Structures are given as structure tokens and as C-alpha cells.
Amino acid sequence: MTKQKLTCPACSCFCDDIEVDIIDGRIKSIDNACLKGSSLIFRTEEKNERTSCMIQGLDAEPEQAIDEAAKILLNSKNPILFGFDHSTTEAQLAGIELAQEIGGKIDDFSSFSYGNIIEELINKTIPTCCISEMDSVNLFVYWGANPLHSHPRHLSNFSYYASSGYSEISTFRTVDLCTIDIRKNETALMSNPFYRLPPGDDAHFASSVCKGLTNNEDNKKAKDFYTLLNASSSTVIFVGTGLLASMGKEISPLREMIDHLALNIKIVPMVDQPNMRGFNKTLHGITGSVNMVDFAENTSKNEKIPFFQNIIDKKVDAILIIGADPFYKMPLQVLKHLDQIPIITVDPFITDTTKASKVVIGSSVSGVESEGNVIRMDGKEIHLPAPCPTNRLSDVQILKLILEKVKA
Amino acid sequence: MSSATYETELEIITFRDAFLSLKKHGPEYNKAAAVISLSEEDIKKLNTSSGQTIFLKNDQGKIEAEVKLDKTCYTAVGLMPASRLINRITTVDEDFLSLKQLKVTAYT
């Protein structure tokens, strides 16, 4: 038996203190991982959870499935590549190259969640910081986020409980935890203060905070939050999907609040998909856009049409999905439009998406069976080692083989 | 004996439930996904109580959910975990930030 270090690939925290006991190349026990992480890592060992390579529901050799995938993409006039949020940065690069080669579109889940805010962070129009720079922070705010369910070790590894200002004895504590949400979630129960906002009121709340104390007689919560921010010498606001869904695509009220207050406030997105920030950064580095790029006619343009809208508008005739399970997350209203479109899925596990796919290519699990690099939610690049190598192809190898076939 | 229908308009807000997203199949998943937290006022309007089943419908379809009282919940808001069940009646708006727009009629 050997004990090895593993960087958990289950969420965008990428906790690097996981230890696994390995016997005969397989993981037998895990230390330090949360429920989400241990579930993913143990799932790699469950043979009935793993998908093989398949063509139209029948088992196939990886080479046959890759050939079929290349044929579908070559015969398509409007292909789209979607996902990549669970893929390594190397696979994302290979995916972008493939989309360029076939003149297709490429997109991920960020087009209707974190895309706008990550673009602002990349363009440095919103201040941000790395987790390693948070030791002097004395106010952590979770806005529209519930890390206990989305990123279970976030509080203990990266923010409130990891801070040097935290003490079990409240008298000695020099760091505060605040939550802003529509519901009194588990994080709110631990926070003091907690501000409960009505649905869709987040933009108004941010604007009210800008007004400060004097012109804000009717909004006690905004005045209290303003006072709290002013009392803090260093604040980090973790932005969750609740805030983004409430504000829609217009996140300017948040940016204006930060600009107006002119305090030491940094923003870190609670990116829900592990390597979403990596996809946005990689695509932005090549095309200048973080998502929704169309490579038709040998150019790249941001078409501003998210994946699901492309499907509803019948603008795609082949889909390659990798590192995502959109069939689990998609509304039935969108799924209805997919009957006639051939779908190729690259995934290590059996998912709702693999069940609906014409071609399935079973891959290794990045961070457990194959190595690669990813970008953590705070923008730091992290290397994922592979403590349990396998003979399964990695996502980057699969995409490169498809690319070779397409080029041939 | 005919029973009267009680109904009210709700905006559904979904939230992430780690336990639900880990167990994606089976009766446990279906049971946990079909729970809606409502305010005391909405429960009264629907003439129902915690543990009872209500129907949620819009132009996409109809689902059933078990009522749970949440005293901190806003009136005219229903809180449900994100799941395959709620996806059946989720509508797509122009920005595809549709869950904030998810309006349903709840009735018993």
C-alpha cells in the first residue's frame, strides 16, 4: 500500500491536501476530501459508473468511436463544441484548435453564469485577489452563494476558518463572516450578519449601499452593510450564482458599488464548474472572448448566442460535448430540440448526456487517472497529478486524435 | 363531494443541494427533488400544510411537490433544489438566466 497526495478535481477549490491509500494501482481510502470530492474520487473505482466507448449504444473500440466522431464533425456544416469546464487547460486548448479547424462554435456553461464577471476580472475592471493574499482580510462576504453545498471546504481551507484572524473564542476573533442571500441557507446560519434580500433585489441593494448613510433612510440593510464595509480594512466578496441570476447579465451595479465606495474590496467568483475559469482564460487568450465564439469563415467572432439558444434556434447540426453534463441541467424546453442532432460525448462516467449521445468516448478522470493543469476560482494555475494512471485515453488525447482525423 | 381548488402565483427560486447532485438517480433523488419551501401565507392561500402535495404548472408542463414550511421564505416565492424535476417546467428567457423568471401557478 502506498499513500499519495492528490489534488481534488471535484470543484474549483482544487484542494491539494487530499491523501489516498493506493493498493494495486487503485484507491482504497481517502483522507481530507469533502463529500463531493470523495464521491468523485471513489466513483472512478466503480466499474458500473464508468462509460465505455460506444456508437449508437453498441460497444466500440476507442479508435472506431474517434473515427465516427471525426466523420460526424466533418459532415457537419454548423458544429458546436460545448463543455470543457471539467477538462484540463490542455484539453481546452485542443478543443479550441478543433473548433478552429472545423469552423465551428465553442461555448461552455459560463455563457449564462460567470462569463461576464470573469471577463471583467481578466480585463482588470473589477479588483480581485488570490487566495494566498487573503490572510489580512477581516471581512468575508458570500453573496448569492452557499459554499457548504457548492464548495464544501471553501470556508475551512480558503476563507473564514482558514484566516489567521479566526478564533474559536469570539472575543479574540478579528474576522467576520457575512452572507447575503434570498434564503437563510446553511452559510447564513453561521454568518453574522446575514442580509436576506427579496428576489431580484440585489442590483437595487448594491445601488443603495453606494448611497451610504445619509441618503439611505429607508434601507436599513444597505446602511448596515455600508457600515460593515467601512469598518473593514480588507474585504473579499465571493460572488455566487444567486447574485448573477438576480442581476442577469448586467453586473454593473456591483462594479459601481465597488468603484463608488473606494474601499479595499476584492471580488472572487464562486465558479461552480471546476475549470470554467480556465476555459474562459484560455479562450480569451486566443480570441479575446471568454465564451460563445464562432470560428466560421476562418475568423473568430463572439456571436453572443449561448449554447442553448443555438439549439432552440436550430443553428447547429452536430454537437461535441466534453467535460459537462448539459442533459442533466438543461430544461426540457431545450432537450426537445435535440432529437435530430447527432451528439458526440467525451466523459469518464455514464451521465444523462452519454445516454443521449450517438457516439460516446470514455475518457480517464483528470486529476486521478491523468494529469493536467487547471485554473482555480481565484485565477491561480494548479497542476493536477495522476496518482492512479490508467490505459484509458485522457480528454486531451481524445481531442488531439479527433483533430488528427479531421485534418487528414 | 367536490373539493374546491385553491391556487396562487409563485416565483420559483432554485438552490444547489450537494446531496441531491451526488445521488442523481433512484427514489431518494425523486423524493428530495420534489420538495418546495413556502411561506406561511402561501401555505394558507393554498389551504394546505407541511407534508401535503401541491401541483405547479406553467406553459411547459406540470409537476408535483411536497410542501415544506419555511418561515423565512418570502411570500409568492417557492424555494426548490435544482434538479431534473424543476427542469421539466423551466422556461428559457432571452438571457438564459431563466430560473429567476420561473413563474408558476401553484394549486391544490
Describe the structure.
With 408 residues, chain A is α/β, with parallel strands linked by helices. Chain A is built from 17 helices and 19 strands. Chain A has helices spanning 35-43, 62-75, 89-102, 115-122, 147-150, 154-157, 186-190, 202-210, 220-231, 241-247, 252-261, 276-287, 307-312, 326-329, 332-335, 352-355, 395-407, and strands spanning 2-6, 18-23, 26-31, 54-55, 58-59, 79-83, 105-107, 139-143, 176-181, 194-196, 235-239, 265-269, 293-294, 301-302, 318-322, 343-347, 359-362, 372-375, 381-384. Chain A starts with a strand and ends with a helix. With 108 residues, chain B is of the alpha/beta class. Chain B is built from four helices and six strands. Chain B has a six-stranded mixed sheet with strand order 2-4-3-6-1-5. In chain B, β3 (53-58) and β4 form a beta hairpin. Chain B starts with 6 loop residues before the first strand and ends with a strand. The mean pLDDT of chain B is 87. Chains A and B meet through α1, α5, α10, α13 and α15 of A and β1 and α1 of B.
Concise synopsis of the structure shown:
By secondary structure, chain A is an alpha/beta fold. Chain A has helices spanning 35-43, 62-75, 89-102, 115-122, 147-150, 154-157, 186-190, 202-210, 220-231, 241-247, 252-261, 276-287, 307-312, 326-329, 332-335, 352-355, 395-407, and strands spanning 2-6, 18-23, 26-31, 54-55, 58-59, 79-83, 105-107, 139-143, 176-181, 194-196, 235-239, 265-269, 293-294, 301-302, 318-322, 343-347, 359-362, 372-375, 381-384.
Question: Helices, strands, pairings?
Answer:
The complex is a heterodimer of chains A (408) and B (108).
Chain A: E1 2-6, E2 18-23, E3 26-31, H1 35-43, E4 54-55, E5 58-59, H2 62-75, E6 79-83, H3 89-102, E7 105-107, H4 115-122, E8 139-143, H5 147-150, H6 154-157, E9 176-181, H7 186-190, E10 194-196, H8 202-210, H9 220-231, E11 235-239, H10 241-247, H11 252-261, E12 265-269, H12 276-287, E13 293-294, E14 301-302, H13 307-312, E15 318-322, H14 326-329, H15 332-335, E16 343-347, H16 352-355, E17 359-362, E18 372-375, E19 381-384, H17 395-407
Parallel strand pairs in A: 6-7, 6-15, 8-9, 8-11, 9-10, 11-12, 15-16, 16-17
Antiparallel strand pairs in A: 1-2, 2-3, 4-5, 4-17, 7-13, 13-14, 18-19
Helix pairs in contact in A: 2-17, 3-12, 3-17, 4-12, 8-9, 8-11
Chain B: E1 7-15, H1 18-22, H2 26-33, E2 35-38, H3 40-45, E3 53-58, E4 61-69, E5 77-81, H4 84-87, E6 103-107
Parallel strand pairs in B: 1-5, 2-4
Antiparallel strand pairs in B: 1-6, 3-4, 3-6
